[in-house]
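Example for tutorial group B:
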């Protein structure tokens, strides 16, 4: 069976149209860029970060939601290295850096307090139940 180049091109256009329709229904963007890696053309599905992150945001009905939005936006901006961190963009990246420090500090503090609680429970069992030194 011989397949013509035109038939293959028509099939490729149909697949592309189906993919674009699926992405539109899912609410994601579809990029038309093609990346050439070692001679192999790889389609870049280019899902835009803003569209992905948009699904995680809840309405701005409280101050907490606004703080989360600004923190996530600042953190994403902090890792955007294609633009200099100057001016208002630099302020946003500094907010993102502080948001990350607060989040990592909270996680670290929670871990330390969990371990401290385990130590207190273990010492209470050893000194109280086993050795009878405390009541």
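The residue assignment follows.
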């Amino acid at each position: 069976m011989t397949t013509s180049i035109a038939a293959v091109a028509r099939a490729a256009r149909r697949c592309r149209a189906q993919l674009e329709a699926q992405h539109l229904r899912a609410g994601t963007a579809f990029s038309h860029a093609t990346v050439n890696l070692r001679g192999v053309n790889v389609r870049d599905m280019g899902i835009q970060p803003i569209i992905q992150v948009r699904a995680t945001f809840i309405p701005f009905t409280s101050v907490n939601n606004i703080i989360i939005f600004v923190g996530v936006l600042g953190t994403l901006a902090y890792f955007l290295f294609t633009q200099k961190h100057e001016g208002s963009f630099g302020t946003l990246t500094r907010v993102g850096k502080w948001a990350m420090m607060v989040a990592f500090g909270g996680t670290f503090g929670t871990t330390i307090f969990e371990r401290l609680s385990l130590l207190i429970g273990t010492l209470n069992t050893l000194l109280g139940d086993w050795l009878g030194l405390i009541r």
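The radius of gyration is 27 Å. Compare this with the pattern of hydrophobic and polar residues in the output above.
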